[in-house]
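Assemble and predict.
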Amino acid sequence: MSGGAVGSYDYRHYPYHRPVELDRGGQGRCPVLIVGAGPVGLAAAIDLAQQGIASIVVDDNDVVSVGSRAICWSKRTLEIFDRLGVGERMVAKGVTWRVGRVYHRDRELYRFDLLPEGGHKMPAFINLQQYYAEEYLIDRAMELADRVDLRWRHRLAGIEQSGTGVTATIDTADGQYRVTADWLIAADGARSTVRSLLGLPFEGTTFEEKFLIVDVRIDADYPSDRRFWFQPEFDPSQSVLIHRQPDNVFRIDFQLGWDADVERERDPERAMARVRRVVGPGVHCEFEWCSVYTFRCARLERFTSGRVIFAGDSAHVVSPFGARGGNGGIQDVDNLCWKLAAVLRKEAPPALLDSYDSERRHGADENILNSRRTTTFMTPKTAVERQLRDGVLALAPDFPFARALVNSGRLSRPCDLRGFSGFAADDGSIAGPLLPGMPCDDAPVRAGDGSAGWLLDHLGGAPTVLAFAASPQEVDGIGRCAAASDIAGLRVVVISEEARPCPGMTVLSDRAGLVGARYGGASGVTYLIRPDQHVLGRWRGIDPQALGHAWRRCLGTEAA
Amino acid sequence: MNALQRTDGFRGRGDEVYERLVAAHRGLSDEQSGALNARLVLLLANQVGDADVVTAAIAAARASLGLADGAAPREE
Ligand SMILES: Cc1cc2nc3c(=O)[nH]c(=O)nc-3n(C[C@H](O)[C@H](O)[C@H](O)COP(=O)(O)OP(=O)(O)OC[C@H]3O[C@@H](n4cnc5c(N)ncnc54)[C@H](O)[C@@H]3O)c2cc1C
């Protein structure tokens, strides 16, 4: 296999294969066609495959992301990646961090700690270049090759919809073919071909600012903390942001100003001169990659259009401050795939996908709101705006309220879906903070074979009953009630005094007392959890009817 | 939404407060005055603490200039 290095990463070219359709009259069929093998398309293919759904993934390219692009992966994303089988590998390679430090000129204004509490499998954030994330996802997809058909250098060129399917025209070096899919996932990025073929407007705001983004290898033991300077003394930029990545590669973002000359700033030598001013003299550093970006916030009005579903950058884009692009896209996948699988298995009507549209538009709006606030703070547009911004920076050392206003990026948070239809109403009888709509919290558990593990390992991918039992009799009772709820594919997880192997269910113990604390757990407390690890409902006592009703209402097969 | 206080809140020391506001700008360039006002607004808004009251104050100030509400974030 041929390849080529960009900096320290060796890009391999994934092999192109002549499509079988060309020998079968130029036509093919599949349940799901995914356009784009970026992080979002790959994650969707894996998630669907894990739920038993086959897909074809086409990508017009044959290498992973050129340049580091998305580097900050949030705890929630890592939990999703863990469910998809790549989380541990990402964490092992990535640089774990949780502290951000913010400076004005040469003075540190404050630090923030993103995860002060322990007892979670996944860290607050890791930094890992997008090319590694994609490489690991591709490896995982290839393990699932019986259900994931990855096709490199296959370009989507046309699209036609009918009431029952989507027919895509795909170009390859050997000619054109057509595939008809029940559903098409457009994961083809910010410049989405699917979006333009359907003529859908992608409206939003351009952030009038240019950023130089440089990856550089530095032989120095710099801290892993995220460091952000407003008006640094060492560079004429408006701001500088540094993140540490694996392999001693550092990502440095320079805020150049709207009038910056893109061609000039893109010159590696000029970029390295800036880098040297950051790292100081005498430190050896080597250029890896750089690019100049202008960012914008935009989203589609709807994330579904007939049988075409948009996910990731094709549906929404934000500025990278806050790391909400890639992380938002992975949460799209998490929200979408179990619903699409349920529709394809005919367990739910296609209308279930409307909840993907509304829930993820909410997620995108939250990301856009935060991104807009950060960019407003970073780029004052008038003299008065600058006076307000500089006022905040000047007051920050002495006034905690002003420190809280300093905005260098509000980092990606898990999406809270409280209040959306489809979640059960809460009767207030349980003390724990996890209300219906919220994503589940992790906690340490012990399994029946004595091994130490994590609660979230037991919750994703299927509807799950999580219940607390005080005695072996209660455990058996929970098993009987869950079976009587008549929920297809239901998984049962019981937290009990003692973990033990138990047919048809998983009995865990609460090895640090944190499941109880985080879930208000006590004998009889029962949660029903969606396959994407969001709380669907919770009750005191276990009632098969209530469970079955809540699940069918969520799927849309039963009225409220 | 919490209402903006319209009655005299200075408890007899209004003239003094006004004099201090004016005096604080004495001898400053327009730019320094602007910066001073910005910091005062931030400190006082935090002291008020209630986002609804701050929003109502912004609306009242704009209305006195004959401007529309403008308190909602701008959609560019
Ligand atoms: C400088 C920078 C820094 C960033 N930092 C972060 C960060 O720290 N954290 C974070 O979460 N996000 C970050 N992001 C955002 C992140 O990179 C994107 O959100 C992410 O790549 C979106 O993934 P995607 O799979 O939706 O799209 P993409 O990664 O763009 O993938 C789309 C794929 O579709 C393929 N394609 C396009 N058209 C066709 C076609 N017609 N036929 C077939 N295939 C096609 C493309 O070749 C590509 O492989 C950053 C982005 C940039 C630019």
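Helices of chain B lie at 14-24, 30-48, 51-64.
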